[in-house]
Amino acid sequence: MIFRGTDTTALLTEWVMAELVLNPDVQNKLQEELELVVGSKRSVRDSDVGNLPYLQAVVKEALRVHPPGPLLSWARLSTSDVELSNGMVVPANTTAMVNMWAITHDSKVWEEASKFKPERFVESMGGTNVDVRGNDLRLAPFGAGRRVCPGKNLGLVTVSLWVAKLVHHFNWLPNKENPIDLTEVLKLSSEMKYPLSAVALPRNLLLSS
Ligand code: HEM
């Protein structure tokens, strides 16, 4: 759990924050939602996350554009011949990998696939509420089936809460001396090749907790 649960959660938070710095309109909308639901007199709690659809959409969109586990697990061995819908056959005893990154960036599956657009997941903004927990294979960043990530709910709520707190308390701006570069590098998980550097300006909320 430590091996699989720590870097994924930290890296996804970093990817979300990088996209929020690059997309100030998204950051503003998120702050507006936080103001409406949480207000400015207290800090965000994990019980708030379920009432923040735009926040959830921002995290989903980061999972789509930068899935921390782009190949899901490293490899699987097929136990029998499997015929795919396109007629291709994966013979028994083949080592196979699922390229989730390719699916989440496929323009046949996603409109404006390269654009960071959380609205695509918010029904009230014309989007679709896609489930990312393994029930919709267009976006299954935690895998699916028997070996699906057992920490998916913890991972989602942790990243959502951290991002909400960071954005609730601070405005995040680009660091001109160290501009954001979204190049990915695959280590244990998919990381930012050049770690995020940004400027945080306190928002002067009257927070009591
Ligand atoms: C945003 C955060 C996370 C992402 C994106 C993520 C993603 C994944 C992926 C893609 C897999 C492989 C699924 C497969 O084999 O098909 C996996 C497996 C696993 N994850 Fe996560 N994970 C996250 C957070 C966590 C957390 C918080 C924990 C534990 C506290 C955790 C524990 C595990 C474990 C133990 C496995 C191996 C399961 C097995 O092989 O049966 N993960 N995760």
Automatic annotation (TrEMBL):
It comes from the Eukaryota. GO terms for molecular function: heme binding; iron ion binding; monooxygenase activity; oxidoreductase activity, acting on paired donors, with incorporation or reduction of molecular oxygen. It holds the Pfam family p450. The keyword Iron applies. Its cofactor is heme. PROSITE patterns: CYTOCHROME_P450. Keywords: Heme, Iron, Metal-binding, Monooxygenase, Oxidoreductase. Heme binds at residue 149. Gene3D superfamilies: Cytochrome P450. Belongs to the cytochrome P450 family. PANTHER family: CYTOCHROME P450 78A7, CYTOCHROME P450 78A7-RELATED. This is Cytochrome P450. It comes from Tetracentron sinense (Spur-leaf).
